[in-house]
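Notes from the pairing session

We agreed to fold both candidates in a single pass and log them together. This is the raw record for the first candidate, unedited. Please don't reformat it; downstream parsing expects exactly this layout.

Candidate A
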Amino acid sequence: MSQSRIIRQRIWDRLKEVARPDTRFHLRFSEFIPDFEGVEAATDRLTQLPAYRDSKLVFVTPDNSMTELRRRLIVEGKPLVMSTYNMQRGFLYLAPGIVPPKAAVFAAWLDGMEHFARPVDLAELTRIGRFDFLATGASAVTLDGIRFGKGHTYFDMEWGMFTDLGLVDEATPVAAVVHDVQVVDDQLSPSATDIQVNYIATPQCLHRVERTGRRPRGIRWDLMSEREISETPPLKELARMRGLL
């Protein structure tokens, strides 16, 4: 068993004490990134960052721990893009003013996003504009900013697509919102596709990460199987755009 899998399992055992169950997956953390007690305080820390306050277009993952942040983006009138679960139906774009004020809580949930937001493909994302802030959940994250999720590397793939399309770059701030029990001081060697975050927001504190290297760029097509590409619509679209299909 890899070191990251060992750490992930250790964190999942701790998470059971603070996680909010999912309506579909209960506490099966291999299937989703959970919301948790104190997420409001963690989100407070993130939204106080100048990089967040100055942002014009935010990318947010579909993790349950991002629900509160999605609600605040809706209330503040900031446009946002969210990937669908496991990118199975690509991305959703939610423009300002679409959601009635009283429906912000519902709209922030995945079913609400499906109701109010509209699907967008990669070609349309490039017309909407560049992201200037990205936020994600994680199963765990190290103090030096290496995050790992359910084990399927979707955020890393999203980052690869966005860099390929020029929607993010080396300076784009990335934040993880997690519970304090999900922050570990283990030392991990990042893989060729790992994204080092700039900030880790928890209920108790905000960790600012001193990045030590450059982030990966583009999709490592050599690491993608034909099945992964064919079953992930955005990857398939990008492969066609690049003449690989």
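Candidate B (folded immediately after A)
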Amino acid sequence: MRIYRAKDYNDMSRKAANIISAQIIMKPDCVLGLATGSTPIGAYRQLVEWYNKGDLDFSEVTTVNLDEYKGLPKENEQSYYYFMNENLFSKVNIDKSRTYLPDGMIEDSDEACRRYNEIIHSVGGVDLQLLGLGHNGHIGFNEPGIAFETETHCVSLSERTIKANMRFFVSERHVPRQAYTMGIKTIMSAHKILVVISGEDKADAVQQAFFGPVTPQVPGSILQLHNDVTIVADEAALSKCPL
């Protein structure tokens, strides 16, 4: 596990974008596992800037996203499909037919998860998986207590996660209660993992996930067992770590 200390959010974003761009340059037809939320936006913005300068080519890249809310159509502004399109896909020359997310509109959870697992297997797995880290240590929507060996599954979101996501919705009652998420078994199958973390409010989660015991109660702690994990975090997020 390698930990890179960034000065602030912008520095973290640039460092993370450097790692992602290196993956694309070294393997133009790579499979990127992508994440949503506020933390990776800066990295996506930097990738778009380099693309506009002619430094990056996304034409052969395939992407699989971590998760999608159950019950939200792609057109909904809070869907993760919409997020990815707004922050990356519509701004680079990626082939959108090779950008994959779980289908939140499939009501049958088993069927939705089966289809997404098949997609991930069909593209040959993930070369580089981008992750954030939740306040309770979750990765993707894998909440505390979920078994490490799961693949894509439907999860009921914790109250803490619902409240954290409430800022994106009109009110708490509009926040979906369930989501389809890539499972920890699938995440751990990625060849490389990149975790981006920013803010003092994540300091406890960072300390528990990367310097505490490996336990399903802190889902991100499983990353300690992966052989190629890079963490890029700002000084505030690393403030409680013994570095």
